[in-house]
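Predict structure. Chain length: 320.
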Amino acid sequence: MNEILLNLLIFCVGLAFLIVSSGWLIQSSVKFANFVRLTPLFIGAVLIAFGTSAPEAGVGIMAAIRNHKGIALGNIIGSNIANIGLIIGLCALIKPLKVQKTIFKREIPIMLFATVLFYVLAMDLVLSRIDGMIFVALFIIFCILSYLGSKKSFDESEMSDFSFNKTIGKVKSRSGIIFIIAASLVGIVIGADIMVRTGSRLAEIFSVPAWIIGITVFAIGTSLPELVTSLTATFKKVSSISVGNIVGSNIFNIFFVLGVVAIIRPINIDPSLLRFELPVLLVFSIVFFTVMRLRYTISRLEGLLLFLGYIAFIVFLLIK
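Prediction complete.
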């Protein structure tokens, strides 16, 4: 009982790290966008997405080094499904998400392309080093396109309702903002790591099977930075960061994390993933793309359907 209480306490400490650090990350990143005239969409889709995906990157790369490639693969698939179903669903329930139309010229189509390419390359039941190099090359191209596009489409109106806290408001130098961004990312990674570690230990204490730990605790745990960051952005009325963070994170997870993992050590694909988990990821990605394409908005009803779809996915996994 004492061990359970101790792990619950440590879990809450990790959650506090996430909430506080994510708030500072949003504040400092939007301030940085003001300094260099980058759109909130680019900040969310690239800078914040890369930072909040650091837990997935850490888990994936360490799993590859230790020859636990299944953990890396399951974590990425589960995290990307959680990003759309759980996070976008919850954000839309709080406040309908409306984003710039430019996201459909780059980020969301690239996310859908990355998911489809992932499925196609997995059909031979292995992600080879060549596949990994293809992913990483596409990741570099995505970063360049997002940066160039953001410089052409800066729009201050989206940030007109955004208010900075006193500390961020007083920072006048780029170096000061960059320091705060870096410190915030460190806090997010530390918080996520604490929660994943204690969550895994709690699952072991309650005798939950290892595969459930991998696809639920690790996937949900490493998606917590995206969840807190996107929810914070939603409350701050910067929906492009909410959506851009998720889209960028999903692209980062496939192109960069899986790419690097496959380069380190080729990944063998369990045939069952092609029959259920990967098709589910494809369906979520296609539904997300279609809904956003119709009105460039996700309503509360659509958010509810995404969230319920994610709950159904988890329930089916537990039953299976």
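Summary: The longest helix spans residues 2-36.
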